[in-house]
Amino acid sequence: MRSTFFESRRNALFCFGQMRKECCGCVGARSQVGCRLLFISPLWTQIRTKTRMGGRWNFTERTIIFRFIHSPEFNPRLRVMDSTERNENPKEVGAGSVSRLFALLRTLGEVPEGGERVTQLAQQVGLSQPTTHRLLRSLMDEGMVEQDARSKRYRLSLEFFALAANAGKTGNLRDLVRPSMLRLSASLGDSLFLLARSGFDAICLDRSEGPYPIRTFTGDIGGRVALGVGQGSLAILAFLPEEERETVIRYNLPRLKDFHLYDEVLLRSEVENVRRLGYAARNTGVLEGMAGLAVPILNRDGHAVAALSVATISDRLGPSRLPMVVELLKREAAAIGPRINPFDPTLRRPSQTFGG
């Protein structure tokens, strides 16, 4: 059946002009004779001559033209825009598809809570919209992505998070931090502590003993103290999300007064000081002869989930030694943070992780 698209000679000449310009970038060497994809056809010369002379095409000629006009090589809407998809090596195409798939997953992991539209996702990933849509459909088929029926926005599914949680069951915070504590204890010759947040408190998850006899607020492993009491819990408090930090401060202020440590003004001032310095080292004098220093262990969002703390006698944490200790603790904490498993049950129920 003859297409109305080719009913007039003007339309035909326009189409062939667009072929030479758009179909496959051959406007240089073959611009006068048309696209190399049609040039290989023995009917091309005949078709071109008829077009110029205003002749009528037969069925075979119309079929060739129709198929070409509706092919990806000619039509920009059908043309594959991603360079990796133009690659003729099947192995490289497969590797490129995997890379694009993970790039899309990472982008979905950063979208707002309500999800994102395919157009925005395509722009962020750097892919064409049809390619992005095809990848999204594949992920939806596997249950990793879901689409809101009303907004048409895409987001990671609960199945994806369940899979991530299952993969993250190996190891916990104590196992992750233990080598750092042993290194610090050996190099500093002091006692090291790992504290983790538990609601409005901090719990001692682990300790590595140094040669000097010390006293601490948390005591042994499993000891609990209100956030804000002692350097370790203060370091955690200072780097909580702002709304959570305010809630904890309001709740814990009466508890802190029992230790005769802070009033509200002094506590808020100390929190800001810790945030500015990146560590807590204020000696309150409650534990006479003792001194301590702590740095927060931050998650990927920059919020504290735990703290590394060193406790020693006051003479060993003077102004000359303090910068070196701070640097060592910060270095270890910075190395630990990116490796924290966000699904680690220790971060939700630290009191259930005690043991040898």
From TrEMBL:
Taxonomy, superkingdom: Bacteria
Coiled coil location: none
SMART domains: HTH_ARSR, HTH_ICLR
Start and end residues of each IclR-ED domain: 159-342
CDD domains noted in UniProt: HTH_ARSR
Domain HTH iclR-type: 95-158
One Pfam family here: IclR_C
Protein name listed in UniProt: IclR family transcriptional regulator
